[in-house]
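Researcher: I'm comparing several assemblies side by side, and this is the next one on my list. It has 1497 residues spread over three chains. Same procedure as the others: predict the full complex and return the structure.
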Amino acid sequence: MYRYVIKRIFMMIPIVIGVSFIIFSILAFIPGDPGSIILGPGATQAEVNELNHQLGYDQPFLQRYANYMYKAFVSRDFGISYATRLPVFQQIMQRLPVSFLLAASAMLLAIVVGVPIGMLSAVRQYTALDYVPTAIALFLASLPAFLIGMVLMLFFSLWLNWFPSNGIGSWEHYVMPTISLGLPYASFQLRFTRSSMLETIRQDYIRTAKAKGAPESSVIWHHAMRNALLPVVTVAGNNFGLLIGGAVATETLFGMPGLGTLIVNGINTRDLPIVMAGIIVFTILFSLIILLVDVMYAFIDPRVKARYTSGD
Amino acid sequence: MEKPILSVNNLNVIYKTRKFTVNAVNDISFSLNKKETIGIVGETGAGKTTTALSIMRLLPERTGRITGGGIHFNGDNLLSLTEAQMQCVRGANIAMIFQDPMTSLNPVLTVGEQISEALVLHNTGNRSPQQIEKRVDEVLTLVGISPSRKKDYPHQFSGGMKQRIVIAIALACEPSMLIADEPTTALDVTIQAQVLQMIRDLRNRLSTSMIMITHDLGIVAQTCDTVAVMYAGELIEIGRIADIFTGDLHHPYSLGLFGSIPKMREKTERLTPIPGLMPDPTCLPAGCHFSPRCPYRMDVCNTPAPTCKMNETHQIRCHLFAKESLVSMHLPESLKTSPALPKDRTQESAIEEKHEAPLIQTLGLKKYFRIKNSYLHAVDDINLSISRGKTLGVVGESGCGKSTLGRVILRLLKATAGEVRFNGENILGYGTQKMREMRRKMQIILQDPYSSLNPRMSVVETIAEYMIVNKTFKTRQEIFNRAVKLMDTVGLARRYVNSYPHELDGGRRQRIGIARAISLDPEFIVCDEPVSALDVSIQAQILNLLMDIQKEHELTYLFITHDLSVVKHISDEILVMYLGQCVEHAASDDLFDSPMHPYTKALLSAVPEPDLSASRREISVIRGEITNPIDPPVGCRFAARCDSCRDICRSKDPQLVDYGNKHYVACFMLQNYRVF
Amino acid sequence: MHKSVRTAFLVIVAVFFLSASMIPAYSDQPKRDSVNLSTLASLTSVDPHPGAENVQDNIVYAQVYEGLVAQNQGTGEYEMRIAESYSISEDGKTYTFKLRPNAKFHNGEPVNASDVVFSLKRVKGMPGRSIYTSDIDDVVVVDDKTVNIVMKGKNAATLNSLSRLMILSEKEVTSQGESFGTKVAKAGTGPYFFTEFEHGVGWKMEAFSDYYRGPASIKYINWKPISEASAGLIAFESGELDWYIAPVANWSQLEKNESINSELVAANHISFISVNYERGALNDDNVRKAIAYAISKEHMVDGSLDGYAVIAKSMIRPGYNTGAPTDTFQYEYDPEKAKEYLAKSGYQNGVDIGTITVVAGGYFEKMAQILQADLAAVGIKGTIRRMENAASLAAYRVQDYDIAVTGNPLTGDYNFYRAMVDSHMVGSFLVKFEGDKFDYKRFDRLFEEGVQELDPVKRMAIYTELDKAVMDTACYLPMFHRTLPLIWVKGLSLTNYHTNPQVFEWKWE
């Protein structure tokens, strides 16, 4: 098990190098340069060239990449943002808690709402307890997070004045972003849990359990639940990882300084150090979360654990 | 008369969905006495499992519904019990064993937990937790599994052991009745023998009554006291085992069922399959459901058939036996024969010794798969040769490498070493272009007809596919004409030209596969378990078809199967494989008459035969499990399971030796006998 | 994010507004000492000269930093700030500024001539401000409170340039060194100083008690960035913001809302179309003129900004921008004339001019669509090429476009037009006037003459000639000057209605 975890951690090295190289290449080959952006349309070409030179942006592509990676991983210097001249790592570490908190609370909401209702829907298939939540889930899933956020803002900020519409600072600030981000995922979790549960309760071992004389509650909780949760855990973990860097719309709408917005703005302004460090941190974080999910899997499913222990 | 433990009276079950209603079980009645076993036989869709689930009251909640009749267990009507009361019956009084042990156990709970659960649920004796643990140990010991393994999870056990655990769960509370639904169908034949024997032993020791649901008449012959034959939801014949296996009078369907089964101990030219298919359960034919397929169909058959009492214990539901129609006068002679009695063996004229070069030959063929740092010896030094127009059967249990062998010969897998010769030429050395031409001469028919057909291609497109790719004809029209002719050849009605695979049943799908395989006029076909997924009556049709086509086109078959009776029926020679190696190779009759290798012997004796004379004898069950040949040590691979194993078997590889009449066996023990 | 969804939502927000305005959400408050403001993008630095001038950042800097002089945003007149007076030498090259004796930096240090020298020399070395610094030859300390600014020649735009260059405390800036800009600094002289600065989150300001014009009435300013216009509007409506530049699409509702103050203000900004004369058929003067006549500015204003914009008669808006001519030539919408020009060029059956490049999203894209339609009406075909902002800047800089639809803020002096026309500003803007096609040397010469002419009347005459000459090329086609809806809460009294607010002048009633 430990060997497996260590192996997976080492596997992250090529992943990080690969992902960062791809991002670096894309940024290098799309038109636009940081000098133009920082100096704006009023500057002369000479000024732009000078600034690009100061930033080291005029060096050959591979050299720039190698320099960056060398600095980042050997001297642990992720560089300084072109735009703000703040150390990039500090900026990311400032934003990571915001993104992490938002993603975690949204996923928590998604799980707390989605999983039990999904279970219930499956167990009570073809009843109102199934139809109503499934229909609502389908409706919510088809709404963009942006729209849900807007409706929440109108209700809770504008009319009821319960929650601030913008910024961070208190738990109240996280309520609406969590709901608007979490609801579509809750509906996704719901549908996923439901189908996973439906599949599980049709398994032969559920019939075996019933044939033993186990009452329905025991069949559901003791036999079906753990099996049905296996894929749910994976999906929730993946979604959580994605949300840390992918909640850009919600972050923008609610004025939350998150990692996703930082990276997207970095791409827009060709702020290479921000983008690179953001992507590297995000990749490592995502890989760790996936690893965590896989390890959790082993605790739920002995078959998986056996596979890890044997080292396959 | 003794009061039966279970009596089912006029049971009717339907499955109702929004689209259609299926009459799954129609008006069946039977009873089971204490300590006795009833076998319910029939093909897929006959209603066997539905009957069992009705007794357990475990029909699918939304769709399945018992619409009439009664089920009395120890005098209580199970159908009037509440769900809570029923939960007390399940597991405690009636237990059930399901078909597939691979999926019947909860993968995330230890086997100990799963066994003790039933004990905790039905803890009538107020056992303490320690006593329950003790009981779990007892039950595991009973089914031959070390109690020390109760903390293990299902995936740590082999298929046979899993089925033992399923049985342990069922027997934990010492139920008075056990329902076994195809308990050994998913198992290899030697393992099946082990499990069957165990079930029989335990039933006798624990005095349990049993319902044995199976499609295998051999198992019935070996385990049952009473047999009920079901067809399309109806119980068409029921009787004591002697009535069914040795009696004179039979329902035409039962007769057909027996005729469909290839017998191990006799050589018949053709199987006598039942024509047609079981009717669609959503629209059953009026009257006798079997009448459309029945060779003795009469006008009266479109009214429901009466149940006719042949004797105290034997009932047949058929108009032919109705008293008022004075049947015995008109009863066809053929219905009076006892189906299972061995007929005189048709003395085959000795196979003409044609000394022509074999069409297919392998020399030292090896296929190793790399698994981490070791090699799996899937095919290890196989030498075989098949003459034109002949069939070589390859038999072995799962994991013996027989399918790999077929694929290596066709070059679908790359051989690790050795040669495959086609007409004397080593095709393993062929280049891409030459091999492409060669591929036309070599085809494969696969086990699962459904997954080997493209669901988006119609029947005629599927059959025409190879011809289009190979540009056999100039115009598409010619190709399609030929495809339609091929449909005739394989007995597919022309109305299916534009059907899609999902609209057809397994037998017809397999016919498509066969038509496609012969579309390029191949010389050699690898048949990889072509009938394993089919019901017996359909299986017989397909086997007959394969033999007819062989004759007509002078085809050469490599017939891969795990089913010994099938291989006997179709093969000229048989090669028995065990863990990648050939242990015995002989003419079909020689092998079955005088098997020499201990493994072959065990295999043959493990097959339950639908023959009372062969049943009830103590079969020699081979112990142990099939392992896998990963970096096998020197020595005979069967040594670990062999009763007559000596030191030499573990220190030297046995070689194939000809014991006369081209009967090759790889066993040291035989060599010793010859020496002495 | 789906743009259509966003647009749809702006409409919904607008509808809700009328009903929302019935609720008195923020009236009976005790007299407040703070004001909450927002910008569309986060302030990137507390250093007022980090890179390009940026309208959003300038809103913030205007509260903290001052130059020697300041341009009144209403009138365009120059007012004294850190300097209390100035005089010009005989040759018109040397400006002598007398600094206010009571002007202090936020760190308590008095403003000395050395600080002015330090600040101006620091900016001179920075890219992005050359339009203001390139004409400054030298800055010399005369005494503690007197400083001489020596221009390279006579320069009518000197005050404009100096109003754009902020004076920072030498001591504060040098003590912070490299990190200046990244954290709170007390380097300014303005009415407010930074008390908190967190990039992306927000920043706070406090009134400077030693401010030479007296401390500001409102004691604190809290800022946060809200990049979504509709989200900002909700924040304003829910009382989280006190003053906001609303999306123009909401103006018709906001205007009617009695419970708030609102004012539509013209921005010092030009939205225009640039035609690349070096490309294909566009090299033909008649084709460019046909294009110029084919475009209706009314269509542009109505179609892209719901009619809320001021039609531009020239690139540099007269009135506010010093020296900008009022008597200018413009192409009046006349499709027939456009067709005539097209016929003259030999393209009477229509012509494909290639692509219309535009930054995707926003009103520029709508302008491009209107342009495409107007051109199609006279037989000119163009395909819209949508680009991302950064990519478009790079493309414009190397003239990689056929026709571009874009816009730019103006600086307050006609001299800014040099950045778009003067051949010395190589590659800085969309059209590069070079070669034999146009008498670009005349443009350069007229700019030179104009900036050296200190007499406003004569200066404007030169620019009138220049403006007509440039307009004749039909390479820059001015469309309109944007207007922005300002909204602010009741009880907040503003003495100026500018997009670049002076919180110093605001009061809570």
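Model: For your comparison table: Chain C touches chain A through 63 residues (CB under 8 Å).
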